[in-house]
Amino acid sequence: MKFRELRKQVLSEEIVKEILSMIESGEIGPGDKLPPERELAATLNVSRPSLREALRALAIMNVIEIAQGDGIYVTTLEPELLTQHLEFIFSLEDSTFLQLFEARRIVEAGCAELAAERAQDDDISAIESILVESTDSVDDADRFLQVDIRLHDRIAQIADNPMLSRFMASISRLSRASRSITTDIPGVREQSAQDHRAIVEAIAARNPEAARQAMLQHLRHVEGSLKVVSHAAP
């Protein structure tokens, strides 16, 4: 791994960006051990206090793990690990939920479209089985939440696109926070169960455009309910 020298008096944010950039480019990978702190500070041409501040930030983000007496390691970088603290962000700002729905409309509508094109008979059987659970769990918010997540994740798997699957893994984790709110809104579970049926039927019919529109309609319904609750909040 080759770190570039940074200018003196660099802000810790720049150190964070440099290390994240190296991870994104593949120069540093999951499980890799970084150089010792003294060596890393010298290589980057930064002070050790600035480096420590940056490393603490990366540790909070679960990008690195600082093992006392052993060294600094890049974590597994699993989406579930990297997004652990983002639910706190959602608890502070309702607009973040709406941005998430915007992302979900783009990604999940595409997943539904591809799923309708690529679904095999066993895939159809699987989502039809989950659909039955969706209908049966309308009166149980916790169970409905889990079934809802399973259905959306299964559709993403049927789409059979590794990049979309990675996006969905992150989105699924992030959306748990919003789903925990929306599933408690009166009428949302009932409407979602109807929407799920429309999505599954479109995929089973191998109708990509209908599947896309059904998913978009579903997400708009849930997003609309969230907006109503947000506006009604004191």
What are the main properties of this structure?
single chain; 234 residues; mainly alpha; Arc Repressor Mutant, subunit A; Four Helix Bundle (Hemerythrin (Met), subunit A); 2 domains; 11 helices; 72% helix
Tell me the name of the CATH class of the largest domain.
Mainly Alpha
- Total strand count, please? 2
Major sheet summary line? 2 strands, antiparallel
Whole-number tally of structural domains? 2
| Unreliable residue stretches | none
**What's the CATH superfamily of the largest domain, by name?**
GntR ligand-binding domain-like
How would you classify the helix and strand content by structural class? mainly alpha
> What is the strand arrangement across the widest sheet?
1-2
Distinct helical segment count? 11
Radius of gyration: 22 Å
Strand content: under 5%
Question: How much is the average pLDDT?
Answer: 86
Percent helix among the residues?
Answer: over 70%
- Global geometry: elongated
Offer a quick outline of the entry.
With 234 residues, the protein is mainly α. 72% of the residues lie in helices and 3% in strands.
Q: Would you kindly provide a written description of the structure presented here, covering whatever features stand out?
A:
By secondary structure, the protein is mostly helical. 72% of the residues lie in helices and 3% in strands. It contains eleven helices and two strands. It has a two-stranded antiparallel sheet with strand order 1-2. A hairpin with a 3-residue loop joins strand 1 and strand 2. The mean pLDDT is 86.
